[in-house]
Structure formats: structure tokens, C-alpha cells
């Protein structure tokens, strides 16, 4: 398996007739799409790109060169994780990742929306520390408190219910990365397991979800990438083990 990120001048890998995800291994938004496809148990190829030296062809799939982008038919793609991730859930009905109740689907979207301030605080703490303000730390912890209250209110192991769903896979990539912040000298962002006992239990449960387990990176690994990016030289290929483009097939759901 390779985690090599293709860059300017590299050729576009041959299209094999499967869904194909263009991603960056450390991008939380791209991870959302990977988790959804893993959970849907559909077959797909995964191509990583260097976001600092983008291959020319990525703009054919994502006009701004952002990831993720999902090629659903040769040369045809959709982009933006919030748009992409609804598509496989509707295209491949089982297992359903969204609630059947329209009101619950709307409430799930509100959870994601209300968590964006915590996500923004993470990005500032990780990559632009001089701009970090006390209010951002407050917003971060308000986000954690909000999630814990939602878990308590719903009374289920996951926000989706008894199994992880789209709302969980949308939030998880940031929770995964939050654990790296104390390792880079940001102790104020630690998730206190006494204060956030229910949330901590949820985090551990998410780590054991098969769709997450197949793609999960440790806090230490995320910390190393954050530090490399903060130095101006992001080590995209720190996980690479070969010189072949990474493709991860999944067994297709019949």
C-alpha cells in the first residue's frame, strides 16, 4: 500500500471503473468521505494529492483544486464533503447512514453546524497559533460541551443511534485531531476525561467502528504532521511505504 501524494507533473492514474476519491491523507474533510464509503462498504479507489504542489489534472475534478472530490464516472466528479457524502448514502441504500425522520436529519445538520466554531479553533491552534484568542479556546470547549449534552440527550452510543452514521462520520475527523493538540504544546485544548466523561466514551467507541478503524491515525501521527506543516514543509508522504499510488478497494455491497 502507498500513501504517496501525487504532485505537479505526475500523471493521473488510470481509471479503473470504480468510484474514485481524490484526497489528502491528513485532511479531515477528505476523511469524512473515506469514512462514509467505508461504512457503505462500496468499492472505491483512493488517490492522494499534494495540496501545495497540486497535479494539474485535479482542477478537472475540483475547480478550486480542493479535496475531497469524488469521480463517480470517468471524467465526472462532485466535490465538497457535505455534498459528496449524501450521494453514496442515497445511491447505496444499505446500511442507511441518515435518519429516516426528516426532523432528525435536520437536527443532525444543526449539530454539525454548531460544531464549526470548535473546528475553527482547532485550525487556529494547530496552524496559526499567534492568532489564537481566548474566545477561541472558549468556543472549542463550548463545542465539546455541546456534543456531550447531545449525547446525553439522545441516550445512544452514537449521535446517529446504536450505530455510527453520517453525523458521526462528519464530526469524527476533527475529534480525532483534537487529541493531537496537547502534544504540540496546547494543553488548554485537552479533552478532560472527568469533565467530558460521556464524550470520552463516545470517542473511544468511534475508534472501534470498522469504518474509522481502517483509516484512523494516532494523535502522535497527527501531531507530527501538524508540526511539519507549521514549519512550512508539510510532510505529506510521512506514511508512504512504496512508490505506487494508493488505492484502497472495498468489497462492493450487492
From TrEMBL:
<dbReference type="Pfam" id="PF13409">
    <property type="entry name" value="GST_N_2"/>
</dbReference>
<dbReference type="InterPro" id="IPR004045">
    <property type="entry name" value="Glutathione_S-Trfase_N"/>
</dbReference>
<dbReference type="GO" id="GO:0045174">
    <property type="term" value="F:glutathione dehydrogenase (ascorbate) activity"/>
</dbReference>
<protein>
    <submittedName>
        <fullName>Glutathione S-transferase omega1</fullName>
    </submittedName>
</protein>
<dbReference type="Pfam" id="PF13410">
    <property type="entry name" value="GST_C_2"/>
</dbReference>
<keyword id="KW-0560">Oxidoreductase</keyword>
<dbReference type="InterPro" id="IPR040079">
    <property type="entry name" value="Glutathione_S-Trfase"/>
</dbReference>
<dbReference type="InterPro" id="IPR005442">
    <property type="entry name" value="GST_omega"/>
</dbReference>
<comment type="similarity">
    <text>Belongs to the GST superfamily. Omega family.</text>
</comment>
<feature type="domain" description="GST C-terminal">
    <location>
        <begin position="101"/>
        <end position="234"/>
    </location>
</feature>
<dbReference type="GO" id="GO:0004364">
    <property type="term" value="F:glutathione transferase activity"/>
</dbReference>
<dbReference type="InterPro" id="IPR010987">
    <property type="entry name" value="Glutathione-S-Trfase_C-like"/>
</dbReference>
<dbReference type="InterPro" id="IPR036282">
    <property type="entry name" value="Glutathione-S-Trfase_C_sf"/>
</dbReference>
<dbReference type="InterPro" id="IPR036249">
    <property type="entry name" value="Thioredoxin-like_sf"/>
</dbReference>
<feature type="domain" description="GST N-terminal">
    <location>
        <begin position="17"/>
        <end position="96"/>
    </location>
</feature>
<dbReference type="GO" id="GO:0005737">
    <property type="term" value="C:cytoplasm"/>
</dbReference>
<dbReference type="GO" id="GO:0006749">
    <property type="term" value="P:glutathione metabolic process"/>
</dbReference>
<dbReference type="InterPro" id="IPR050983">
    <property type="entry name" value="GST_Omega/HSP26"/>
</dbReference>
<keyword id="KW-0808">Transferase</keyword>
Amino acid at each position: 500500500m502507498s500513501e504517496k501524494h501525487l504532485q505537479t507533473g505526475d500523471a493521473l492514474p488510470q481509471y479503473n471503473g470504480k468510484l474514485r476519491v481524490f484526497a489528502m491523507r491528513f485532511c479531515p474533510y477528505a476523511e469524512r468521505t473515506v469514512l462514509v464509503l467505508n461504512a457503505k462498504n462500496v468499492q472505491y479507489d483512493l488517490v492522494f494529492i499534494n495540496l501545495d504542489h497540486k497535479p494539474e489534472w485535479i482542477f478537472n475534478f475540483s475547480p478550486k483544486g480542493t479535496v475531497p472530490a469524488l469521480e463517480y464516472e470517468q471524467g465526472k466528479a462532485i466535490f465538497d464533503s457535505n455534498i459528496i457524502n449524501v450521494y453514496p448514502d442515497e445511491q447505496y441504500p444499505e446500511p442507511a447512514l441518515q435518519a429516516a425522520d426528516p426532523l432528525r436529519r435536520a437536527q443532525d445538520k444543526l449539530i454539525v453546524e454548531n460544531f464549526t466554531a470548535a473546528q475553527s479553533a482547532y485550525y487556529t491552534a494547530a496552524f496559526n497559533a499567534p492568532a489564537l484568542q481566548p474566545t477561541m479556546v472558549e468556543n472549542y470547549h463550548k463545542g465539546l460541551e455541546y456534543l456531550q449534552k447531545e449525547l446525553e440527550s439522545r441516550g445512544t452510543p452514537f449521535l446517529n443511534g446504536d450505530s455510527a452514521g453520517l453525523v458521526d462520520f462528519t464530526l469524527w475527523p476533527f475529534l480525532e485531531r483534537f487529541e493531537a493538540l496537547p502534544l504540540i504544546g496546547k494543553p488548554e485544548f485537552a479533552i478532560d476525561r472527568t469533565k467530558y466523561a460521556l464524550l470520552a466514551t463516545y470517542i473511544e467507541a468511534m475508534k472501534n467502528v470498522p469504518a474509522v478503524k481502517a483509516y484512523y491515525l494516532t494523535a502522535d501521527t497527527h501531531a507530527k504532521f501538524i508540526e511539519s506543516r507549521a514549519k512550512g514543509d508539510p510532510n505529506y508522504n510521512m506514511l508512504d511505504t512504496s512508490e505506487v499510488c494508493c488505492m484502497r478497494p472495498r468489497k462492493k455491497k450487492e
